[in-house]
Every structure is written in structure tokens, then in C-alpha cells.
Input
Amino acid sequence: MEYENLRFLYESTNIPIPRPICWFNVPFGPVEVRWGYLLMSRMPGRPLSESWLILSHADKYVIIQQLATYMRQLRSIPPPPNPLIGSVGGRPVRCFRLTALNPVGPFHDEAHLNRHLRGPRSSQMPPTVMQTHAKRHALVFSHNDLFPQNILVEGTKITAIVDWESSGWFPEHFEYCCQRYAVCDDFDADWASFVPEFLDEWEEEVQADEAIKKVYESFRVTWDTVE
Output
């Protein structure tokens, strides 16, 4: 997945990303398990997560403006005819907003993706979720894990954007929802305050995500009580 994504982006953009060299897998253990390995070029810089909290607001803004330029370039890539939602070439994708561990998809269309997001408790979703999920969005190329640990910098210059495993063709709001989905602490909240500088805001879609989470959180509470 990531190899194909990187190769596509390396040929389609001038975003600073690792150059993919090769991908291979090897058997592991006594059962039919294979571990995959991706060989790529080494990129300069350190993760932005190491310095984000000590940077001045002005320095953060310099970095974010570079990121905005790269995101505009990413979203300007025209999708292929009749694209599936998922990794390049209609492949499955591994994304924290979809599942924690296993690749899923590809999805035939946005309705298919939304059914996956609602999961087996779709009938318990509030009407606002169903109304929001009835909307349709343009498909754009998205990173979907664009957080400081995946942005390499030297000072205030972005030297690389890494970890493209979760990337692919997704509805235009999906990346913003990924950003809001992952806010857990003060570090995340500070980063999130800059997100509207490089991504369009999609608050209705975020609220639908929050409503879905509440349905499943209430189910877990009920299940724990029963047990």
C-alpha cells in the first residue's frame, strides 16, 4: 500500500517525500505469515513533534504555511476515472479512523465508506448522522495521518512528509475529520488550532463523527455494566 502511494506521489508532485526503492515480504514463524518491508530513501530533519511545543507562534506559522502549499498541491492531483475510495490503484487502506489494525476497503463510493464508519449499529445513529452521510463530496488525494510526528523539519523548513500508509483517494472532508478525531491532549489541541490554516473546515462532518463515537461509547458502557 505505502509503496504504491509513495511511487505515485513521487512521480506526480514535488512534495518532499522519501523515494520508494522496493518492497518485499518474507515468511515469518511456523504459520503462513509474511512480513512486508519497504525500502526507501533516508530523509533529513527531525520530527516536528520534538520541537512543536517550544516553537514560537511565528515559527509554527512559517511551517504551517509550507504545509498548506503542499496540501494544495496534493489536492490538485486529478483523480483517475471512476476511482475507488482507498489507496492508489484501488487497494485497501490502513487508517486509524477506519480501523486500528487491519487494512479495509477499498470502498465503492462514499455511501459504502459511510456505512463502514457507522458500523453494525447504524440503526441507532441519530438523524443528524444520516443527514450528513447523505451528502456527497469530491474525491481528493489525502494523507490522513498528517501529524507532527510525520513531518520532518530542520529549523522552520519542512524537509519531508512521511508515513503515507493511510493515504489515498478520499472525500475532501475526510482528512479534516482525521485531524479532529485524534485530539486527545494539550499537544493535540495546540496542533489542531493550526489545522484550519492548511485544511478546509468541515464541522458538520466532524459532529457526525462525534455522534457515531457517542453511540459506540454508550454501547461499551452498557456492555461493561452487563458483564
